[in-house]
Design brief:
This protein is mainly alpha-helical and 218 residues long. It folds into 2 domains: 90 residues, Winged helix-like DNA-binding domain superfamily/Winged helix DNA-binding domain (Arc Repressor Mutant, subunit A, Orthogonal Bundle); 80 residues, Orthogonal Bundle (Arc Repressor Mutant, subunit A), CATH 1.10.10. The protein has 11 helices and 2 strands. The protein has a two-stranded antiparallel sheet with strand order 1-2. A hairpin with a 6-residue loop joins strand 1 and strand 2. Helix 9 packs across helix 10 and helix 9 packs parallel to helix 11. The protein is globular and about 60 Å long.
Length: 218
Amino acid sequence: MEDHEGKLLRRALFAGLREGSTAVPQSLLKHYRGLNLSEIDVMLIVHLISFLEKEGKQFPTIEEIQSRMSAPPDKVIASLQKLLKEDFIRIEEETDPLSGIKYERYNLEPLYRHLAERAAEELERELAADPAARDDIYTAFEQEFGRPLTPMELETITAWLDKDRYPEELVRAALKEAVFSGKVHFRYIDRILLDWNRNRIATAEQAKQYSKQFRGFR
């Protein structure tokens, strides 16, 4: 018969699993040192992401943040001030459209911009070291879009390949499908890839046949 301690451990485990996990950008772990961010800075950012994603808190108090960190309170405050001063995060004022009440929230978009710029710089160094690599998927996107890609767009393509694990040929096929449909923008291409993933489309040939069926071709 399971003892009391065992039951508590099992209940705690199930409770922890129900809480889920927090998605930490891989590029943050990879590039934070190059951005001159400390481990305290990174953990503070992770907690802000967690508050937003898991608890819906857009503006946790400094006391709430401090309570979850092992760093001394003055170090946490100094880290928050640094992140604000160096434009990694911002505090913005919003107005509730229904009540008209004003509230504040943390905006992490500046952080993602820094990470995208760092990823773009890394890509540029790789391309400079291997000019032949310029005839790649990024070039294909630039040719279809008729302009250079932004750092965020480069990061999106990289995430499709490295994070979502879409085969390169499938991403190229999604680009062609978007061009064929006259909807050449990243949000539409992402929807194509999600739809193909749900339908277990893994190759360009499968995507071609699926698209023909979808359009009613025989």
